Structures are given as structure tokens and as C-alpha cells.
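Reopening this one. Same input as before:
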Amino acid sequence: MLYWSQIWYGLGMYLVYIKKMAIPSFYNLFFYICPYIFGGIIVETCLLYRNLAMSFAFSLSESARIFCP
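Same output, byte for byte:
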């Protein structure tokens, strides 16, 4: 699982790469980077909800085991 420090480091290295490729305008830079940022946010949100759902299902099964052995 990625940590924020790895994400920021990767983003910084990506910016250095884009500067070396000499992309001139902020418009191009914006559309090169935004899909990665929003994709990362979507993936993290999906993982969070999946973990919450799994822990909720586990707690339900444990409580059912208490009442119906």
C-alpha cells in the first residue's frame, strides 16, 4: 500500500521529468498530472470503503456467532 510520502516523492520526480521534457504551459502540466491525482484519490476511497465493509461484515458474523452458536 502506498504512503503519502511515496506519492509526493513520485509526483516530484514526475514534475522533474516533465520539466526535462520541456512542456511549456501550465495547461498541459495540469492535464498530465490531474488524472494521477484523482485516480489516487478514487483508489484510496475504494480501498477505505472495502476495508470498512469487510470489518462491518466480520463484526456482524461475530455477533451472530454469540447469539446462535
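So the earlier flakiness isn't reproducible anymore. For the record, The chain has two helices and no strands.
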